[in-house]
Amino acid sequence: MKIYGDSISGNCLKVKWTADFLGRSYDWIETDIMQGESRTPAYLAMNPAGQVPTVILDDGRPLSQSNAIITYLAEGSALIPADAYDRGRMLEWMYWEQYSHEPYVAVARFQVRYLGKPVEELEPRIVERGGAALQRMELALAASPFLVGGAVSLADVALVAYTRVSHEGGFSLDLYPAVKAWVARVEAALNIA
Ligand SMILES: N[C@@H](CCC(=O)N[C@@H](CS)C(=O)NCC(=O)O)C(=O)O
Question: How far is CA 169 from CA 10, 43, 161, in A?
């Protein structure tokens, strides 16, 4: 398998961590989004969305969208709960991550760390919604060691990616102690600390 990813991207690291956790071998093809490398004609032929990550399976088929890729890779593994309801809850978090967490927490980080925007100049909506996402996680993680019960799942992989670097976008995990403790727990479980 080939993984086209940019090492600065949490969406790409989700795929790397899942493959590493599962002992899957792969070639990592570093793809610099800041240099437009995900927008070349050759890249667009693999993923018309022009984004990383994209994987090319050993038989040549492409797959994109980080959460779709990790779901594919983790099929049948302990990272996907066997119980149907728990599996539904895992997906609930993963869809929420893409619509209600990543667009604020990851975008704030990108604008501050990679575009050099001062935190004070971030759009207030981004700051407010990012904080609300972290607060929602805080409530859940005050009651449970992982997002879905007692074991690490893809929900944790998806959400730890940008939460663990949220300070780079101006958020402080000191305000969210249960989230902070969970980040350390997930990093240890995935061996990514
Ligand atoms: N929903 C997609 C989002 C992918 C995404 O936003 N990728 C960004 C990097 S994190 C990217 O490729 N940006 C470069 C571009 O859009 O040209 C996923 O989860 O894979």
Answer: 13, 29, 13
Sheet of strand 62-64, all strands in order from the earlier edge strand to the far edge = 27-30, 2-5, 54-56, 62-64
Q: What's the 143 CA to ligand 1 centre distance in angstroms? A: 32
Ligand 1 center to 10 CA (angstroms): 9
C-alpha distances in Å from residue 121, one per residue of 60, 116, 138, 172: 44, 10, 26, 17
Using one digit for the tens of pLDDT, what is the confidence trace for 77-91? 999 999 999 999 999
**pLDDT for 172-186, tens place per residue?**
999 999 999 999 999
| DSSP 8-state code for residue 72 | H
Q: CA 2 to CA 29: how far, in whole Å?
A: 7
Nearest to 8 by CA among 95, 98, 113, 105: 113
CA of 9 to the centre of ligand 1 (A): 8
CA of 193 to the centre of ligand 1 (A): 23
Nearest CA residue ID for atom 13, ligand 1:
51
What are the pocket residues of ligand 1 if the criterion is a CB atom closer than 6 Å to any ligand atom? 9, 11, 33, 38-39, 50-53, 65-67, 98
pTM above 0.85, yes or no: yes
What sign does the CA torsion over 23, 26, 29, 32 have? negative
